[in-house]
TrEMBL record:
<dbReference type="GO" id="GO:0003678">
    <property type="term" value="F:DNA helicase activity"/>
</dbReference>
<keyword id="KW-0234">DNA repair</keyword>
<dbReference type="InterPro" id="IPR014001">
    <property type="entry name" value="Helicase_ATP-bd"/>
</dbReference>
<dbReference type="InterPro" id="IPR045562">
    <property type="entry name" value="RecG_dom3_C"/>
</dbReference>
<dbReference type="InterPro" id="IPR001650">
    <property type="entry name" value="Helicase_C-like"/>
</dbReference>
<dbReference type="InterPro" id="IPR012340">
    <property type="entry name" value="NA-bd_OB-fold"/>
</dbReference>
<dbReference type="InterPro" id="IPR027417">
    <property type="entry name" value="P-loop_NTPase"/>
</dbReference>
<keyword id="KW-0238">DNA-binding</keyword>
<keyword id="KW-0378">Hydrolase</keyword>
<dbReference type="GO" id="GO:0016787">
    <property type="term" value="F:hydrolase activity"/>
</dbReference>
<dbReference type="Pfam" id="PF19833">
    <property type="entry name" value="RecG_dom3_C"/>
</dbReference>
<dbReference type="InterPro" id="IPR011545">
    <property type="entry name" value="DEAD/DEAH_box_helicase_dom"/>
</dbReference>
<dbReference type="InterPro" id="IPR047112">
    <property type="entry name" value="RecG/Mfd"/>
</dbReference>
<protein>
    <recommendedName>
        <fullName>Probable DNA 3'-5' helicase RecG</fullName>
    </recommendedName>
</protein>
<keyword id="KW-0067">ATP-binding</keyword>
<keyword id="KW-0547">Nucleotide-binding</keyword>
<dbReference type="Pfam" id="PF00270">
    <property type="entry name" value="DEAD"/>
</dbReference>
């Protein structure tokens, strides 16, 4: 018997035509990838599909019985139409074949089979045009391949496309399964025994050719556990590697800079900030690099915690770098840190404080003269705190003693980028690393996507925050509420406050490229029918219409760095001349932007944004002691999934609860980042939201194994499976850690 080779090209088994179709439809190129294309459901052999559940546009595979077949000439042109009526015993559906009269004899009333295609409607009747189909064998004399496909009690229905049906996948899978041979077992024997799991070969056969519901469940459990175990083993190895890397201890967490800074703060640190600060201080004092994730709800004070950690490192004689994903956010952090430090940000300069340091900013669009000046501050060590974008990763940026890397919005940076910054440390040591996320992470996701990090959760909000009230404004159903929304904006501006208007598009030319700054949730077809609001068109409309007379500015990602700084400065400062009352922006202001005078936000086409993103956006208002108001404008109808998302955002300001709801509503690929990256996720069956029990068991088993055998030298099949697991996903979701 041959040995199964997961890396074998699929065309070697199926031939070029079938393999090419699967590659085009699903990106599948190897035997292993194809066998992991698991059924999404099963059709019980004796049960007909309920046709009342079919929806136009769906690619479906249904089990039904032929009722009748007729052939008639086409009315508008030459040729014939073969129409087959199939039924589930209650509802009916037509199969139509154009100019294929020879098919008439294939459909005998009473025959049962599977019919696959895209549901559409013609003259009020639902139909499948030119579907693929397979009849159940009526006796053993029929095609043996069909007998093999339908021999079991359960018929698999695979994720399919309009070009490759579930039936075609099933036929191809049958060919591949017949060539499996001996399959190497990736899981250690003690893991299989401890958790009473099926072996790998039995699980593959059972999930594709099940004979009972119990067999399906056992196969799914085994394959889910395998996915969780492979992921947790990679994370356990990474934790072990980090634990053995050298780092310089930064023990002056109560040094003169920290003491002076805290003495100057106009408020008291929250218990949560103090507790997380102790976690970080303890890590910084170690001789192995800290690798910690700091998460907290919107406005919980993560940046302040990170700044205390940076000052602690500067107190110890080192430097700290804060890496931000955009120039707007980097500039905001730079301004915020300088404002918090005051004269302490001018250490060694005329008028600077004795207990101080300098703060440098490095971005890609800086003017050459300023860039040279800041680079000199960094390499000399005069700048203890350095804020920047990807520009910090270039070879021209050299540190005297980089002790701490703080990564904001960590999901926008990959492992290689963080490693490039970490490599700038001296003496062969590694800097401590603190990554921050503004999106609260449920424990299930933290254990999978961030499993190699120590996690600190910042609880509570600083005192004095007035909070935000959120309302959904229906533009179609209650246009008077739209008028009232603009009146509220005028009232806030008249009181000396500021207003954000958020749009999903920039609006230069109306093309899809304008969507680049919004993480749009294109999940509801009712929200995609009308043009989306754009910054440029909205600013013009407001200036000549409902907000005429107010000072209106714009902000978006295509503006130059100087233009962005000027817009934010005019919006944030009371004394700016000319100032901006209303800032019309894309989601470039989603995180990090801190304007205490901003009290109202209007989000246009709010149904096109995800729950977590809306929560982040509204966190830009109500940040001071003034109450905030967020108005979510939408054309989505009542009862639609989009409106349910918006109602959820309006119902609570608990970011952790919203994150849980967000994960429940989104596809698994979205959770792991696959839909944004275009890569397939290696997690085919495991659901990080609901399979917490499996994940916990796999994490314990993987940690135990890596502690016993860090190199996994006794498990060559596991090593091969890990390489395949990570390579298939391009390490995309792993880079989030």
């Amino acid at each position: 018997m041959s040995v199964y080779d997961a890396s074998a090209p699929l065309d070697r088994v199926l031939g070029g035509k079938s393999a090419g179709a699967l590659n085009k439809a699903f990106g599948i190129t190897t035997v292993g990838e194809f066998t992991r294309h698991y059924p999404r459901r099963y059709v019980a052999r004796g049960e007909l599909t309920d046709m009342n559940t079919l929806v136009d546009g769906d690619a479906v595979t249904i089990l039904a019985e032929v009722v009748s077949v007729t052939t008639r000439p086409m009315q508008q042109r030459r040729g014939t139409i073969v129409e087959v009526v199939i039924s589930d015993g209650v509802a009916k559906l037509s199969l139509t074949f154009f100019n294929q009269r020879w098919r008439e004899g294939m459909f005998r009333p009473g025959r049962r089979g599977l019919f696959a295609g895209e549901v559409s409607s013609y003259r009020g009747k639902r139909q499948l045009a030119h579907p693929t189909f397979e009849f159940f064998p009526e006796d053993v004399e029929e095609d043996p391949d069909r007998i093999a496909m339908f021999a079991g009690a359960f018929i698999p229905v695979y994720p399919a496309t309009a070009s490759v049906s579930s039936l075609q996948i099933a036929r191809a899978m049958s060919v591949v399964l017949d060539t499996l041979g001996d399959i190497p077992e990736p899981l250690p024997a003690f893991v299989i025994a401890d958790h009473d799991l099926m072996d790998h070969r039995a699980a593959l056969l059972a999930i594709h050719r099940p004979v009972s519901e119990e067999e399906i469940e056992a196969a799914r459990l085994r394959l889910k556990f395998e996915e969780a175990f492979l992921l947790q083993t990679v994370l356990a190895q990474r934790r072990a590697e980090i634990a053995h890397l050298p780092a310089r201890a930064r023990v002056e967490h109560d040094g003169p800079l920290i003491r002076e800074f805290e003495a100057r703060l106009p408020f008291t640190l929250t218990p949560g900030q103090l507790a997380v600060g102790e976690d970080i201080a303890r890590d910084l004092a170690g001789d192995h690099p800290m690798h910690r994730l700091l998460q907290g709800d919107v406005g919980s004070g993560k940046t302040l915690v990170a700044l205390r950690a940076m000052l602690s490192v500067v107190d110890s004689g080192g430097q700290a770098a804060l890496l931000a994903p955009t120039e707007v956010l980097a500039a905001q952090h730079f301004r915020s840190i300088k404002n918090l430090l005051g004269e302490m940000a001018e250490g060694g300069m005329l008028g600077g404080h004795d207990q101080g340091t300098q703060v440098a900013l490095v971005t890609g669009s800086m003017k050459v003269a300023q860039r040279r000046k800041d680079l000199l501050k960094i390499i000399s060590g005069d700048a203890g705190i350095v804020v920047g974008t990807h520009a910090l990763l270039t070879d021209t940026v050299q540190f005297r003693d980089l002790g701490l890397v703080v990564v904001d919005e960590q999901h926008r940076f990959g492992v290689e980028q963080r490693a490039a910054l970490s490599a700038k440390a001296v003496d062969g040591t590694r800097p401590h690393v603190l990554v921050m996320t503004a999106t609260p992470i449920p424990r299930t996701v933290a254990m999978t996507v961030f499993g190699d990090l120590d996690i600190s959760t910042l609880e509570g909000l600083p005192e004095g925050r007035a909070g935000v009230t959120t309302h959904v404004v229906s533009m179609k159903e209650k246009p008077a509420h739209v008028d009232r929304a603009w009146e509220r904006v005028r009232e806030e501006v008249a009181a000396g406050h500021r207003a954000f208007i958020v749009c999903p598009r920039i609006g230069d030319d109306g093309t899809d490229e304008d969507l680049l700054e919004a993480d749009l949730e294109a999940v509801d077809d009712e929200s995609t029918k009308s043009p989306l609001a754009s910054v440029l068109e909205t600013a013009e409309y407001l200036a000549s219409g409902p907000l005429a007379g107010l000072r209106i500015g714009i902000l978006h990602g295509r503006m130059s760095s100087d233009e962005k700084d000027a817009a934010m400065g005019a919006f944030a400062s009371v004394d700016a001349d000319p100032g901006i009352d209303v800032l019309v922006s894309t989601t470039v202001i989603e995180v990090g932007v801190d304007v205490p005078m901003a009290t109202v936000m209007v989000v246009l086409d709010a149904d096109r944004f995800g729950i977590s993103q809306l929560h982040q956006l509204r966190g830009r208002v109500g940040r001071g002691n003034l109450p905030g108001l967020c108005l979510l404008m939408t054309n989505a109808p009542v009862g639609s999934p989009a409106r349910k998302r918006l109602n959820a955002v309006a119902s609570t300001t608990d970011g952790f609860e919203l994150a849980r709801l967000d994960l429940e509503q989104r596809r698994e690929g979205d959770v792991l980042g696959a839909s944004q990256s275009g890569h397939r996720t290696s997690l085919k069956l495991l659901q990080v939201v609901s399979d917490i029990g499996i994940i916990e068991l796999a994490r314990t088993a993987a940690t135990t194994l890596v502690e016993i055998n860090p190199t996994l030298s006794e498990y060559p099949h596991l090593i091969a499976a890990l390489a395949d697991f990570v390579a298939e996903d391009q390490a995309e979701f792993m880079e989030k850690a």
